[in-house]
Amino acid sequence: MLTRLESCTVHDPINGVDGARGDVWIEDGRIVAAPADGRAAAQTLDMGGRVVMPGGIDLHSHIGGGKVNIARMLLPEEHRAHRQAGGNGHRCGSGHASPSTFTTGYAYARMGYTAAFEPAMLPANARQAHQEMADIPLLDKGAYVLLGNDDLFLDLLAEGAGPDAVADYVAWTLHATQALAVKIVNPGGIAAFKFNGRKLDLDEQGPHWGITPRTILTTLADALDRLGVPHPIHVHGCNLGVPGNDATTLATIAAMEGRRIHLTHLQFHSYGKEGRHRFSSAAPAIAELVNKSPNVSLDVGQVMFGQTVTASGDTMSQVRNARFAHPKKWVGMDIECEAGCGVVPFRYRDRNFVHALQWAIGLELFLAIEDPWRIALTTDHPNGAPFTTYPHLVRLLMDRSFRNDMLARLPKAVREATALGSMTREYTLQEIAIVTRAGPARLLGIDQHYGHLGPGAMADIAVYEDHEDRERMFAQPALVMKNGRVVARDGVVCEPGTRGATHVVRPGHDRAIERRVARFFEDYRDMRLTSFRLAEEEILDGGRGQLVVHACRGAGP
Amino acid sequence: MGGLTLTLRERVRLPVDMAPVLPELLAGLSAQEIGKLELQCGNRRVPLGELFEVAAGDPQRLVIRDTCPALERIGAGMKGGAIAVEGDAGALPGLGMKGGSIEVAGAAGAFAGSEMSGGVIRVAGDAAGFVGAAQAGGRFGMTGGAVLVGGDLGDRAGDRMRRGLVLGGSAGLHAGSRMIGGTILVRGTCSTLPGVGMKRGTLILGGTAAAPATFADNGVHELGWLALLERHLAGLGLRGMFPSRRVRRLTGDLAAGGKGEILVAA
Fold it and tell me: Which keywords annotate this record (chain A) (predicted)?
């Protein structure tokens, strides 16, 4: 069926369309060019000049996998306090910072998002993570598999197995876990924690294997480059949340020596230790280096005030934060010799100097980093704030006077410690479209068919009323389409049963590596290799799921 | 003017969430408007008027008549006013209430006064398990107020209770389990293992109790502060509740810090 969205104000950065008036044509779930033969549309929807963008893409949001479930179990009171009834085809659900799967899908779709990516899937948790994400309606999804702290990877490095073997192991893991990219959390640090390490800096040798985080990072980055995986290594660096970690972050960028790197939740890694509180903003220096380093991309991990829960694979930092837990309870654990997990409930308070400055540092990064294509809008859901705060965040970026009003409410010491008040930049609608859709699509390498409105793209579309209040505008899109079907109108989901696809990469590799992996499994793991590997059919699930395989630049399989 | 009266038309089988039926939420609404309020009944939303006959009156003195145990969460979260339940109340009456009073003429379901922080709940009949307890996974049970039960308490009365008063005729298993503070007064006896996992707080028993081995016997005392408690009870209209001011004091649970006490009338 040919559908025509009439009189749209189109923001489609990938195709260089910035607010042009025009029509968008859709056929069989995809965007098509206006029919040259003058064929009439079977259905015409008048957009009345509203803002039309590709569907939102969140490239870093913890929506599936082990620790999300642990967070849910840790916070029964949150789920009692936030309950959503079912009805009209909706499934019931609960939760605010750790929402249940259905609630997650509905809440994203209501805001005009059509894809979200789980950034920390442990290989051992892959099956559970994918099954959980299969439950999330309305969204396309994918996961980044965690590597770099697992015993086998460190064994390979310590043995001097060479770049081919490492790349093969990385590729094998991507296949076996149906992942889209590779993430590393606190390189070597989680492993060091298990040997009682409480800190591991970039050039410190880790215990047992004697390998530095620098080596782990560069080795993994080289392996991904060799394999041609589109998304660069997704890095949660050393010393998360530690005042003075700015030096580590700057050194990490330098250590990459031009290799591509995606620094995730950079806000948590941009802290100096100046001033009376020994805590200061290092955003200017970091933004300056990022601006000069085209190999670096990032997402911010903005902090927003209120109750949330932090869930991270970084046991080391979560143990450090546990004394700040609110409510006072937390979980830390090892998972299958692969990595760790720490869940600490947290309340960011605007009267607290550190929390308020974290808020300001995130915004400083947003405003000081010039190239919107390399910065993605995230709150590291739920670590900085739940993703439902995005519309408020968009308003902070687009509306300077609103931002300054919010800043004025913070303690004086914070206002004096941040340059935010003097920053005049306001994001344009086009820039918002880049940091929430086009940019993430490009950074993930899924931009051939996602994140734009050119012919051939999937018809994932969000239509917004051009309110002056940008928070209201982005909280309630007038229309959201997924694969060419209207799934939400005026902030109400009308097609709750819609299912999204799972995005993966399948880099080519030498299958001989499996013998080495099998030996490790036989010796140390409680699972057999054959049952560890996630079959394609498990994702396809008799037609309920769908796989989208993205091309790698390297040799095909 | 009499109190606003809701009369249950017929017994319901599926649980009805009564939390929206609070004096403060009904204030200023006409009987017709109240009849249109939607209540969750099982997995459906049902207009209140379909379940109850509404007779106009003062919403600060709400009366619920001909009730049945399917009416759950009566007075949950209430801040003030009075609710009289002429019949049995279902589970969770007064859940998280902050003030006001609830009077139940019959029996109350489980978790009466769970996580409440103020106000008074009076139950003429028995109260089922977990009176004044914490919700599953909650850190604290009741943190203030009083639950006064004329009949008996079920199992685990005052589980994780932090502050406030629970009163009952006798108690079931594990009275005062994991208690963190507050007072539980049982006029009669209780079943096995009272005070298990108790951190602080006071459990007063009228009769002998098989306390866990992790409680230490401190001997018999005449405790002056019990006079204060008696006076406090008199303020709540309760006299002659005290079997004796001479009590045997057991401290424990030593497996959880041991700062709690069980006082057994001597």
Answer: Oxidoreductase
SS3 state of residue B85: strand
For residue A329, tell me if it sits in a domain: yes
CB B131, CB B151: distance < 8 Å: no
pLDDT in tens, A416-442: 999 999 999 999 999 999 999 999 999
Give CA–CA dist A199/A196, Å, rounded. Answer: 9
Dihedral sign for Cα A538, A542, A548, A551, please. positive
Structure tokens at A495: 């097609």
Q: From the CA atom positions of chain B, what is the Rg in Å?
A: 19
Q: What is the per-residue pLDDT for A556?
A: 39
Q: Which residue of A has its CA nearest to B136?
A: A76
pLDDT at A529 over 60: yes
Identify whether A118 is part of a domain.
no
Q: Which residues of B touch A328 (CB under 8 A)?
A: 139
Closest chain B CA to residue A72: B137
Dihedral angle of Cα A241, A243, A246, A248, to the nearest 10 degrees: -70
Written as one string, the DSSP assignment of A293-343 is -TTEEEE-----SEEEEEEES-HHHHHHHGGG-SSS--EEEEETTTEEEEE
Asked, for residue A321, whether it belongs to a domain, the answer is yes
User: Measuring CA to CA, which residue among A19, A41, A143, A205 is closest to residue A539?
Assistant: A143
Phi-psi group of A294: left, alpha or beta (phi > 0 → left; psi -120 to 50 → alpha; rest → beta): alpha
Residues A299 and B66: their CA atoms lie apart, in Å, by: 60
> Could you give the number of structural domains in chain A?
1
Q: Residue A444 in contact with residue A60, Cβ under 8 Å?
A: no
Is A324 domain-assigned?
Answer: yes
Amino acid letter for position A472: R
The shortest C-alpha distance from A77 to chain B (Å) reads: 6
- Please answer whether residues B98 and B118 qualify as being in contact, where contact means their C-beta atoms are separated by less than 8 angstroms: yes
- Confidence at residue B182, expressed as pLDDT on a 0 to 100 scale: 97
Domain that holds residue A319: 306-348
Distance CA A238, CA A515 (A): 32
ipTM, two decimals, is 0.78
Which residue of B38, B43, B111, B162 to mutate against A (max A Cβ within 10 Å)? Answer: B43
- The residues spanned by each domain of chain B are 1-142, 170-266
Q: Is the pLDDT of residue B243 over 80?
A: no
Q: Residue A66's pLDDT is what?
A: 83
A31 has which bridge partners? A26
CA gap B228, A299 in Å, rounded = 61
Backbone angles phi, psi at A291, to 5 degrees: -60, -30
Residue A83 at interface with chain B, using a CB cutoff of 8 Å = no
